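# nightly structure sweep
# worker-07 picked up a monomer target from the shared queue
# config: single-sequence mode, recycle default, output format = structure tokens
# input follows
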Amino acid sequence: MSIQMETQDYNCMFLGMTPTQIVCNETSERLCTSSDCIRAASYLLESMDFRIDPCEDFYEFTCGNWAKYHTRLDSVTRWSWYDIITKRVEHAIRAFLKSKPAAYESKVIGHCRTMYESCMKLNTSDDQMESGRRRAKELLKEYCFPYIHKEDRNCTFDWKATLEKVYTFLGQLTFRSVNIYSPGIQKKVQHYIDFLQPYETIAIDNPNGLQSFIWWMVIDNLIGSIRFNYNIYYRNISINQSNQCAQLVNDRMGMFLGEVIAMPIFLNETKPKLLNSFEEIRSAFNELVENSDWMDQPTKRAVIEKSQAMKVNIGFAEFLLNKTKVDEYLKDFNFTNSSFLVNEHMIAMGHLQFPFYGLGIEALNYGVAISTLGHEFVHGFGKVKDGWTNQTENEYRNRANCFLEQYKNFDISEIDQAINGTVNGTRTLDENIADTVGLLLAYKAYKIFIKKHGEEEILPAFQTFTPEQLFFIGYGNSYCASATPEELMRSNANDEHSLEKFRVNGVVSNLEEFRATFKCKANSKMVSKNPCRIW
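# output follows
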């Protein structure tokens, strides 16, 4: 099968039963024929449903055919671009950990290999299972967590003192923004308790409070040493130990494994470009603040001062390039015992790859990767509004409440008729604001880029689309996913993010920039009757 797309200046077609290869007869200097452009165009053509009006359902327009060409296995409850890249990174890390060490490898990479080899020696015997339980219990008792033998209630739990001990013991403990009262967190705590005390030797005091949260955080670190057994015990599933151990090393040592995939092109080209994009984000944000009509001057000064002070680590922290500092950081950790107690870090750099970056044209890169930079930039201001006047903070709350009311009316049955309910506008509020403002900042940053560098080349087979339209298409496509009804319900009940469809449609419906770009009519579904906007 071949489908031909023609305009006055271009003649392009994609070949095969699926649109995985594009052939273009170049008749214009502005047509991008690089491998990155051709690959990006192919993937977009696979995902998009051109029968859908983008002004009526932008998510279906960008992702309507995604599941058809990206099959979710029955054993997988959710499948998305993020999951695909995560698996790609995990496979690369596993292959590296199984490979023969190179002579020039750093000491920390040697530690990663040691941890992997130690994990591979674990087995599912009853002795190993009981050993893992016993070690966790000993540690919890030593640090006076709400684990108490029934015959021993001499421990007094002091959460401040405990956190100090935990920090000393683990070396580092990162507390994320987690709703400790969510059913998902409580269920996970209970799963770990069930695993650790099959014979009712553990008592939990105040299970819904701060103690429960700290308990969960520490067990989540400790469980690395017995996760292989835990999965088999609780989930009753058959797993590949090599995959599980590679994932464990990635969870605990991911920040250091960035060295494995840090190619020279990333250090010399990609990272400097992303740092420039971050400065464009900052500039766009500062301009929005300066032009806002609801913030008074003292608050504007405080916000811009904080904006100017913000920094970003792209890919990995710079100190990781200093092997002396890394060795000092890790000098007290034991990589051969069964604890594996290095705190987990995401390999952000592992996700700065196709289809989130390297998409041929900057319109797509800004719509995907740079909108993520914008999202995180917004999060950098947190919930505490330092230096804000009461009047401005009250106005911010009013504007934020618009998002709460908007999202709580999104019906999740739009995704799958087998489920029902609405988005929790309160729990997802911060993420919804960051999504919207982040995409707006990326759009304005792209305009700054174009002003500096001029118009871009045109994506093959998408010559009828403007760069601005491709910017939004890139954003929408990055959230393509498929999931079981049960997984959709679970995510909607527990996740601090909205479901993917609403992370796309909810955001674009608030942006005048989207409406103008696609020339949507005022009564279109993707044009909110009461658009929410902070800046």
